[in-house]
Predict the structure.
Amino acid sequence: MRKIQFFDTTLRDGEQTPGVNFNTKEKVQIALQLEKWGIDTIEAGFPISSEGDFEAVQAIAGAASRMTVAGLARCQKKDIDRAYEALKEAKFPQIHVFLATSDVHMEYKLKMTPEEVLTSIKEHVTYARERFEKVQFSPEDATRTRKEFLLKAVQTAIDAGATIINIPDTVGYTNPTEYGQLFAYLIENIKTEQEITFSSHCHDDLGMATANALAAIENGANRVEGTVNGIGERAGNTALEEVAVALHIRQDYYQATSGISLNETKRTSDIVARLSGVAVPRNKAVIGANAFAHESGIHQDGVLKNPETYEIITPQLVGVKNNSLPLGKLSGRHAFVTKLEELGYQLSEEEIKPAFKRFKDLADKKKQITDQDLIALMADETRAEADTARLTGLQVQYVSGGRQGAIVSVEQQGESGVASAIGSGSIQAIYNSIDQIFEQQPKLVNYEIMALTAGEDAQAEVHVSVECPQTHKRINGIGVDFDVLEASAKAYVQASSILKKETEG
Ligand code: KIV
Ligand code: ZN
């Protein structure tokens, strides 16, 4: 049985999802959950890209105890130096150097000849190898690169000291047959005495990211790159949970295992969905809410007679629980902290107090506090600590068939702002007021409302995305509350305050 390594890039490629913007604390929280899930290597960020990314990579390097921590770098010495600085404290550091090799990228983006590209790979992989024991090289846009040139680029990187070769399907262009053949070709033609790890990295533009990753594995790749819930640039990346479960369920076929603890899958997915603001579609493979729902009479009848008739994955396998021990009004601090630890949150004494108070406030309104409620509550805490603004008051005047009015107050770092406005609907009146407070007029590009859990006392969960009309920077916000208007206001305040910060630098 081969063991496939899992490389998670949720915090790097995943953060390239429009609207996703994790703060350092959120990144560390996700990283620790990924470690618990069984990820072998985490790509913690792109240290040269911003101070925030550098700081987050550094924090994750200090926090991870078992997994390798990687940082991304272009073929530039300053990028490699910055990654080296950020990863100094990591127990197991790794650098990921990339350079595009397709004709279209070399000619139009890099404005470099193929010979110059090979020279740059040689120079920068050598430079990286002088600083890192583990060097990964990616020929960007590999699947649209001429095969013979791709082989030359990969051979150059190996000769310069790279021992991990990642083959990115940067634009999601390939298909399983072709991608599998590419791995077979490279593996057969590379000349080296070194043991090389071949890795897949796929994007989902044509809906084939998971199939492509599995085809790579079938053809000799022993590492797979991807993200939790498949988030990422455009249509996203390979969803790692899908690959992990496919390898498990079809072990008979793939003859491969992974170090992923499958029963941590749902929790990992929930945390990433919550902190990214990207909800998991109901019909999403493996972790979607409908993944285990059997609707038709024939299916239900079959499942009742023998679950194996229609169920290849059980909810238990991926850690979907029935909330056998939900918390409630009478739960004490100890039960609360224990449950949070189970969910992957390690709170300091000072952090427990406000979180427990918010839990008690919630328990006064809701009979059973589920894992989903707690994850939402904790995400709110993390955002509040990160200096994002908080909604402190909301008053709405509703007139049937008329103009609606709203008064909103917001607090941020001890300063408060109040504004009132009208709109043709209550939400518009609220959002107009919030725009006045932040003195900006972002475009509302997404507004979704859903129930956080099942049941009549479910909280409303509102997802919004706002976009700055000048920079096109997009930010997601989430608001959770019993009241739909309050949840809508919270989501918009969160997104607006992050957008304000981002656009003001
Ligand atoms: O998709 C891609 O090409 C990438 C590289 C940086 C590996 O994400
Ligand atoms: Zn990518």
